[in-house]
Every structure is written in C-alpha cells, then in structure tokens.
Amino acid sequence: MRTIxxxxxxxxxxxxxxxxxxxxxxxxxxxxxxDMGGFSFVxxxxxxxxxxxxxxxARLGELPFRESDSVCVTGRAVREPRAKLGFEIHxxxxxxxxxxxxxxxxxxxKQNVNLSLDSHLAYRxxxxxxxxxxxxxxxxxxxxxxxxxxxxxxxxxxxxxxxIVSAGAEGGANIFKLDYFGxxxxxxxxxQFYKQAMVPVFGRVFEIGPVFRAEPHDTCRHLNEYxxxxxxxxxxxxxxxxxxMETAMLAYTFGLLREEYADVxxxxxITLPATDSVPEIPFHEAKETVAREYGRPIRTYADLEPExxxxxxxxxxxxxxxxxxxxxxxxxxxxxFYAMDDPADPSVTLSFDLLLDGLEITxxxxxxxxxxxxVGKMLGLGMNPDEFESYLMTHRYGTPPHGGLGLGLERLTxxxxxxxxxxYAALFPRDxxxxxx
Length: 437
Known about the structure:
It is built from 13 helices and 18 strands. It is an alpha+beta fold. Strand 16 and strand 17 form a beta hairpin.
C-alpha cells in the first residue's frame, strides 16, 4: 500500500538556477525557438519567467519539440549577462511531456499583443500565456495577497458568503434573477448582508469573491461579474475608521508589490501611488471644486458624473500630489438603504468613494446598526421590512456600530496598470455579450 507524505518537491527558484552548479532540471512550455544555424535558443516559459536555454544541434541533433509543447530539459545553468535573467541553461537532454496539436493562433513571443478586443477575448486561454498579459494577473495575485495578509494581521476573519440569495443588497433592476427550484432567487450583488451579520460574530471580517450586476452597460468601466474585495468592521467610532483601514491596507499591499513583485511592476511599467497622505473632500465641495478649477458646469447634485471623477483625479494629482482621493458624504438618495445618514445633515450619508486616477475603485461607509432606525429608513424609502427579515435579524438582536467597504479588484488592477478597458483586467470577462470562453 502506498502512502502520500506531505513533502512536495519544492519549486525551482530563479536564484537556485542562477547559482546552480552541476545538473539542473527545468519544466515548462516552449515559448519560442530561434534557429541560429548549428544551435538554437529555446525560450522556456515557466510559471513565473521566460528562461533562455541553448540547444546545440551538433551535439544533440534535431530538436525533438516545437513551440507550445510542454517539456522537461536537463542541463547546466551558466551565467550569461546578455540573457534577460542573467543566466541560460545549456541543454544536455530533453523529454517531451505533451505535444500541442496545433501552433497557437496568436504570436506569444512578440513584445505586445496586437489584437482587437474581440479577438483578444475570443482567444483568451491562449493570449493569457503572453508574458505581458499574464503579468496583469500576477499583479492581481499580489493585490489579493496584500489585502488578505494585512487584514488577517489586523484580526479580521475571512468569510465566504452565498452567491445565490433571496433578496438583493442594493435592490433595483441591476440584479440577475434565477429560478431556484420554482422559487424566485437572485445572484448576489454584494456580500453586504452577510458580512454585516458576521460583525457580531467575529468583530472584523473580509471576503474576496464574485459579485454580479445586471446593468446593461457596454462601457470600458463596467463588468457584469467582477471580483469584490470586501471588509466590514465593528466597534468603530467614525466612518473615517474605515478609510484609515483601507489606506493602511493599500500601503501594506503596495509595499508588498514593490518588494516581491518588482518584475511585474517593471514589465507593466507601473509606478505605485504614495499612500502616506490621501486627501478627503466632501461630495458637494468636490463638485464645486471641479466646476471652479476646470470650468465644468454642475449639471446635477445627484451623483458624481464620470467626467467629474476624472477631473477630480486630476485635481488631486495637481494639488495634493497623489492620484488617490476620498470623496465623502454622498447624498442619501445616491446610497443604499443601509447607509447611515449624517446626524448633522440627514440629506447626506456617512459614506465615501475612493477614486484612483479619476475612477471610483471603492465604495464604503458606516452602516445603520440600530433596529428602529433601519426599519424607519426602509419605510421612508417605500420598502417592506418584512421582505428583509433575515437581514434585520442582525439589528434586532444587537450589532455594534460598524462599517465597511467593497473594492473592485479589476478596476484597481486596470487603474494601476494603465489599462484602458477593464475587460483586459478580468481573467475571463463577463459583459452583455460574453458568456465564453
């Protein structure tokens, strides 16, 4: 009888290859072959890097593999300053692990992917192999890792809430409906109700998971399924406690990216924003500032328009030295029913958005924690509290002052990487027109 021991083979690190003496073994996909006459450069794509290997035809004969085959090569690591990684592998032998049935329809070894959006997404499983494209999702790996590591260190507990729900967290028409064994159900717009319910349980919680919006938008800013990075925390003194926590989390995450994802930042040409001092401006003042500074008339006080957000990002960069800016005290009519109104001015809420380079990446604020206050606001909005009995159970049986936020992973990725369409920052994007690949 065989047994499995918890001793997996460790991954071969880059430094180990650089400093290797004697034989090394490397597995990967054949990224490109450059025939130089008598010898060939074989570029091997591993999970992190493109490794240059040298095939000596006079010694080894004809290449036994081609582009997109998966192979295992053995050989010697040799220092080579002209190679991108500072070394190359002189191949002594190779075994083909699997062969590609066809050559890729996309050139993966050129510097850029020159495809239309539709072609790019149609060939997404292949295009993701391009170093520049996959670097976007290495960046996302770092963002999620930083979010999780920092909040865990701050005594947050990770949760996993259901995505099939009986009521929407935000209501309205932007919710996908399901037939759930003959009953009405929806895809979750947010983990809002559940993370609030978990505050009296754990005090502080976070989640990284999908959310769904049935908005018929066909813009470069919107997706119908995206990844939301949420946290909720109890026993707060002010909604600014949430802003402070987010700023500290971003500072930690950006530090992690600089330290451990420097190759990704270099490849994507990213300069991370400073987070030591993020400006805060109230909603109405923000609109008036944009009108005054850039001569754009205020057309409505209902919400910030996309152009106003863009100009506000410009203002933050020009006057505050950062592309980040918190906009606070959004109008009550522009926020969900669970947002706490400002006691000093009930026409606005104790809420905020965080903008990065003129695009909203976060929405958050303080929630109503008092049962009577929450029921009263529901009734004032024409809602039926009986339809939210399970949500109101959190309030009925006691919950501390609390608040939280939702951060859009794809938007944050796109803004940091200078990507002009959020679809490129989604692994397999879902919009009005796409259900595959």
